[in-house]
Amino acid sequence: MSLSSSAPWLKYYGNVPHHLSYPQKTIYQMVKAAAERNPKLPAYEFMGKKTTFAQFMQKIDETAQAFLAMGIKKGDRVTVQVSETYSYDIVIRDVQKGSDDESLPISSY
Question: Which of 19, 50, 57, 96 meets the CB 3.0–4.6 Å disulfide criterion with 35?
Fold first, then answer.
């Protein structure tokens, strides 16, 4: 069976590549690298308030310290329930920061 018959939507892609190459890094590693390159650039905007990459990394590190203070350590399994706002991004990047698993499963409902 050809790729086009198993994925019929590809015929509508036009010049868009059917496959993308992704770096072998976690999202946390990519955010950290972006913060090191461009600390003053906005990482995200939420409800009209811009947060720079430096501020984003600071929030991630503060969340990591809170997890440590609660006794959560590297290798522990963590369940997070938070709405998909900037808080979600901070917590998920922090969990990835402490994870050895590059394919950290994230489920969003």
Answer: 57
- Chain centroid to Cα 20, Å, comes to 18
pLDDT tens per residue, range 38-72: 999 999 888 899 999 999 999 888 888 888 888 88
Question: Which DSSP helix (H) or strand (E) runs through 69?
Answer: helix 53-69
Residue 40 tokens read as 């003053």
**Dihedral of alpha carbons 56, 60, 61, 63, sign:** positive
Give which of 46, 47, 49, 36 is closest to 89, Cα–Cα.
46
How far is the CA of 105 from the CAs of 23, 36, 40, in angstroms? 17, 26, 30
Single pTM value for the model: 0.63
List pLDDT tens digits, range 63-96: 888 888 888 887 787 777 767 666 666 676 666 6
